[in-house]
Amino acid sequence: NSQLYERIEQMFEGFVKAAVHAIEQRDPTTFGHSGRVANMTIGLAEVVDRAGDGDYRVVKFSREQLREIRYAGLLHDFGKVGVREQVLVKAKKLYPLQLDLIQQRHDFVRRTTEREFWRKRAEFLETHGRTGYEKFLRTLEEEHGRELEALDRLLDAVLHANEPTVLPARRFEELSALARRTYEDTAGKARPYLTDEEMRYLTIPKGSLDETERLEIESHVTHTYRFLQQIP
């Protein structure tokens, strides 16, 4: 019986280690966190257990209780398995794919602006020849330069707003102006420079999570509690 009990303990120990490994693989930024929590909690419990006076002098822990405390420490984040990985590791306000789409959209608009610049030059020469061309070109280049600068400022506003910091009022105004801007797609249809969803994420007041994502992260506590309740 003692050998069987020992084997069961070893199997459970292996399960706990595998569970911790699975958690840390999903959220590498907290690698080693579960082990540190378990070690610190056990250390505190052992200090309390040795207390000879004070409020905790009557508190004692058996070997089994200390082991349970260790397992609870190791598995305290196990509920993260119920949280979507993209939310769990979200570092900025936009998801990487969303930022990629905005940058591609910006590049498309910039290339379209470049083509329009050359089209207007060619159209003027075709219609008017060289007469008045130099003056027209100077004006066109100035307008084109301002347009490119404006586009780059808009992308810069997105990149700054994407950081998980407090969103200044000035940045919110820039984003609002950007959200009202449109461009023509390849079919000639007007499209918003920023979608409603992108705008919602970029205007998160602080941090990288919106309310729904924050609640999802917090739900891992409930998931962990329910899981630990199932362990005899």
Describe the structure.
The chain is an all-alpha fold and 232 residues long. It folds into two domains: 1-88 and 212-230, no CATH class; 96-208. The chain has nine helices and two strands; from the N terminus they run αααααααββαα. It has helices spanning 2-26, 33-50, 63-74, 85-88, 96-128, 133-161, 169-180, 196-202, 211-229; strands spanning 182-184, 190-192. Strands 1-2 form a two-stranded antiparallel ribbon. β1 (182-184) and β2 form a beta hairpin. α6 crosses α7. It is elongated, with a radius of gyration of 30 Å. The two termini are 18 Å apart. The model has no long low-confidence stretch (mean pLDDT 89).
Topology:
Elements (H helix, E strand, L loop, with lengths): L1 H25 L6 H18 L12 H12 L10 H4 L7 H33 L4 H29 L7 H12 L1 E3 L5 E3 L3 H7 L8 H19 L3
Antiparallel strand pairs: 1-2
Helix pairs in contact: 2-3, 5-6, 6-7
Kindly list the characteristics that best describe this protein.
mainly alpha, 9 helices
